[in-house]
Amino acid sequence: MGSELPLDETKSTVSEDAVSGSSDQDHKQQTSLNRTTGLMIVAGILASIFVGGMYFATTYPINQAKHNLLNHRLDSAGEWLDTAGKIPFIKKSEIHFLMARLERRRGDYRAMSELLELASSEGYDGEMISRERILAAAQSADLDKAQPALSMLLADPRGDEREICEAYIIGFLQFQMHEAALQLIRAWQIDFPKDPRPHFLQGVIENSLHNTKEAEKCFHAALKIDPKYYAAAMDMAEVQLELKNTKSALQYLKLAEDDPLLKTDSYVAQAHCFRMLGQDQKAEKILRIVLTESPEHYAASTELGRILVENRRYADALPYLQALVDKDPLLTDPRQFLAQALRGMDRLEEAQAHFDAVEEIKENLANANQLVDTVGNGIDSIDTRLEIADLFWNYGSEQEAMVWMRSAYQLSPRYLPTLKFMLKYYRSKLKDDPNLQEQVDRFEQEIAFSQAQTNRTSVPPQGEESQSTPGTPVLPKLPIEETP
């Protein structure tokens, strides 16, 4: 039939249709496969992003907290730990351990102990918790407990080399064990030649010992390793001022102002340098800017008051200096300048009273510093330590008084004069902080206990000698978390 195709042509057409159908089917399958593969790739990418994001989210706050702890930015470390605590996938035990370390750095050993207990209950490494307690003992100068563990900690530091060294150095310095601190620092420098921190700490110690040129070398070494070690730059500026290199000091202060935490103090120190260079107007301008932002800044108010007095602008100087002296009458510099201002205003009787007070304060602080230079490290140094603490409490820094008071307590926690001193101190602070009633109660109980024990041992049995004296108590020390 004319309408029919030849057989060969029919087969050909069927074959082409079959091939075409098969090709369409293969194309659809390939398209489907490509889509599936594409979705898998996208899913993989999203999963990677999710996992990577989770890893970043869970590790970054912790790492930042650790970094800030190592660099003594405690407020920033606390903020990062607060952030970490809001992320559900971070182990709370690690957060609580690092919070305990933060509180140790702040000197709040009771809060540290509570956080370590919490971290322990959540499964944190018990060995690390024990080590942190040893570091607390070292930092608080409980060297009887801490010193035997030093070799073990250094042999197996577990990444805490700096924490170990710093805690022990702080403890050594509280007992004026400068050589022991310096030996540890030198070992730190050898083991970690690229770490500027030990050079900086050595500089601080050398400067406190009035070894100015040696301190200069140390700060220079720290800045050579890390040119942006701003704390070293700040202290180097102080050394340069002591060496009468005022222009050099200004260069280091300009470097230190790049640190937000040091910026204000750097500006005040720069103003001091400009005054030394005879540029009073420039210095005054800087100080007024600082005081606009920080009205109660002690150094800025003192420096501005001095400039105004030296320029015979006594009435302008009076408000700055009077406010400082009213707040703390033991501040000798502003009190001296206040006396000069009053004398310039013919208020001679008031001026003389301040001059006399400054002389008395300086004389007693000189006595304290002389005792500091000669005090020993043993238990027989307790009375001298309490004398130093009393002088600093009445004429100097309350913080210094606390250091010496606590060092006496660490040497002998049952020595009655030390307990009475502690009680007197906390009673004096009770009005400002009622929460200290707990400490008052504690030391009242300790005094009663110590007096009772002294009464029991004051008359030894016939033929025997008493094994306990007020200076050499036989009772164990209190746990570290309870030290004041």
How would you describe this protein?
- The protein has helices at residues 7-70, 74-85, 92-106, 109-121, 126-139, 143-146, 150-155, 161-174, 178-191, 197-208, 212-225, 230-242, 246-256, 263-276, 280-293, 298-310, 314-327, 332-344, 348-374, 382-395, 398-411, 416-429, 437-457.
- The protein is mainly α.
- The radius of gyration is 34 Å and the shape is globular.
- Mean pLDDT is 84; it is low at 1-19, 42-56 and 459-484.
Figure out the total of helices: 23
Overall SS class: mainly alpha
Q: Characterize the largest beta sheet: strand count, sense, and whether it forms a barrel.
A: none
Helix content: over 70%
Which term fits the overall shape?
A: globular
Poorly predicted ranges: 1-19, 42-56, 459-484
**What is the percentage of strand-forming residues?**
under 5%
Please write the string of helix (H) and strand (E) elements.
HHHHHHHHHHHHHHHHHHHHHHH
What's this entry about, in short?
It contains 23 helices and no strands. With 484 residues, it is mainly α.
Record keyword descriptors for this entry.
globular, disordered C terminus, 75% helix, mainly alpha
